[in-house]
Amino acid sequence: MPIDDLKTLFVTGGGGGIGLEIGRICARRGMNVVLADIHRERLDATVTTFDGPVLGIVMDVSSFAEWARAKQEAEARFGAVDLLVNGAALPPGMSSILDMPVADFETRIATNLSGVFYGVRTFGANMRARGYGHIVNIASEAGLVPMAMLGDYGAAKFGVVGLSGILRIELAPSGVGVTVVAPGLTRSNMTVGMGMDARYVAAAIVEGVRDNAPFIITHPNVRAALEKVHARQIAAIGAPAQPGYENAKTRWE
Predict the structure, then answer these.
(1) Does the annotation mark 245 as catalytic?
(2) Which of 118, 132, 153, 200 is catalytic?
């Protein structure tokens, strides 16, 4: 479905960074905008800067019950949501896996991976039934290439990449698009002014939605590391582990 035909955006992490900038672009396009964020003061201040129709919803994406409440509020105000952007995330704990507190790992999986699944689960079925819509899941370079000290964050973001690829295959027959974004360091409330300007990342995402791009990778410096990862994977494919084994037909063939 052309992006200009999408009427209502629901974006998590909408209080700042990429989520906020996507909201601003969509507002300029005349869309209804729902900004969801866990920080009430930040969200309230942000909503006042919008001229068009906008709704701020305070929510914790790691709670499926809060997703249900947010959906009800959004639809009561604007009707069906046809562009979902899962952008909320917690930063990495910066600890080695073996030294990582269990609670830290569980918290980041709950927000950075389960939170994405909950969003998809909340809005995706209605999009499928209507036969149009688009879902954007914001992952990270750390979901493409293993990075030391990012075990909690990277595990969640690798999960987002995998979930998005599967979802794209499953929703393609219904006309619903799915795009996964893997940005590098970007200025946001998490990064204290470091990284790429979020406005440019957001613009690339909106352009990718228009093209129904499967991937959006905004920081090209990841190319060399990603090529090495893929080369090692391909090199690991040899003869069957069981001599004479013939593969059964698989879904990707």
Answers:
(1) no
(2) 153
